[in-house]
């Protein structure tokens, strides 16, 4: 089943660590991909953003250095297509972790969202 679940994470990210710990505590098998070294491609982002049901702007890591370097004004003026390009070029700009399953994609870690995806996995 680990081939069915992909987690894009950053080793220095506390939120990513919490998400991975949550999955491990419930026996959920997964594969990880380092989001900084191997950020999502433009094609992956387009597909995953659509599957996630949230706007591309919700995929931005607004608390990170990459976002601050761009500046809120530049981000606000950017088109969705531009934002996708930027996200594909800089994994640190992507809100983390990104969890990809066959049935859903989530960005960020919310235990209740993970519970909904893995209802049969209890600690």
TrEMBL record:
Please give the InterPro entries that the UniProt record associates with this protein: Arsenate_reductase-like (IPR006660), Thioredoxin-like_sf (IPR036249), Tscrpt_reg_Spx/MgsR (IPR006504)
What is a single Pfam family found in this protein's UniProt entry?
ArsC
Q: What's the domain of life for this entry?
A: Bacteria
Q: Which SUPFAM superfamilies match?
A: Thioredoxin-like
For this protein, the record's PROSITE patterns field holds:
ARSC
Question: Family, per the entry?
Answer: Belongs to the ArsC family.
Q: NCBIfam families given for it?
A: arsC_related
Report the protein name in the record: ArsC family protein
Gene source species: Corallococcus coralloides
């Amino acid at each position: 089943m680990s081939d069915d679940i992909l987690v894009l994470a950053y080793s220095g990210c506390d939120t990513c660590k919490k998400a991975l710990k949550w999955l491990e505590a419930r026996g959920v098998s997964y594969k990880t991909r380092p989001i900084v070294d191997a950020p999502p491609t433009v094609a992956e982002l387009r597909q995953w953003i659509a599957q996630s049901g949230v706007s591309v702007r919700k995929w931005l890591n607004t608390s990170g250095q990459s976002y601050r370097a761009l500046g809120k004004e530049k981000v606000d003026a950017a088109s969705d297509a531009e934002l996708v390009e930027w996200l594909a070029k800089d994994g640190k700009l992507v809100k983390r972790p990104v969890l990809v399953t066959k049935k859903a994609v989530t960005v960020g870690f919310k235990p209740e969202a993970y519970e909904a995806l893995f209802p049969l996995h209890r600690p």
